[in-house]
Amino acid sequence: MSEQSKILAELQEIIMTILKNGSASEAEGQRIDELEALLHEQKCYKAIDHEVYEYQGEEIAALFATGHTMEAIEKMCECEITPEDFFGFIAYHDEDEEYVDLFTDAFIAEVEKIYESKCHS
């Protein structure tokens, strides 16, 4: 499990506890802030110089969304972003759920397969 995956898992655990309890403790709020700061140090959150996208993960998502799948996967390889980290980034970052219909289980499986063959050969 990557560092990003661990951060996201802990965030999800805290959020579920907060939802269960109906409110957040000061310690939970502080830990969420710490985890989000760590999250923004991850490769998907690398700031880029682009007129539309703030983070590397956003640029990759846009490449996938516009049908540039191979270019997106090549960018993932170049930036050393694994499919697990990229799709974790999308699950957490895509608040408007604009990629829900695109990033199906079949799509994710295909990206993982191509990523493995292109980036680890």
By helix and strand content, what is the structural category?
Answer: mainly alpha
Helix content estimate = 55-70%
Give the number of helices: 6
- Regions with pLDDT < 50 over 5+ consecutive residues? none
Mean pLDDT: 92
**Spatial gap, N to C terminus:** 21 Å
Give the DSSP E fraction (strand runs of 2 or more residues): under 5%
**Envelope shape:** elongated
Largest sheet: none
Cα-based radius of gyration, to the nearest Å? 15 Å
SSE string: HHHHHH
Number of strands: 0
The tally of structural domains comes to 2
- As an assembly, this protein is single chain
Task: Explain what the structure shows.
- The relative contact order is 0.13.
- The mean pLDDT is 92.
- The protein has 2 domains: 1-41; 47-121, no CATH class.
- The chain is built from 6 helices and no strands.
- With 121 residues, the protein is mainly α.
- Helix 3 runs antiparallel to helix 4 and helix 4 (69-79) packs across helix 6.
- It has helices spanning 3-21, 26-39, 56-65, 69-79, 83-93, 105-119.
Topology:
Layout: H1 3-21, H2 26-39, H3 56-65, H4 69-79, H5 83-93, H6 105-119
Helix pairs in contact: 1-2, 3-4, 4-6
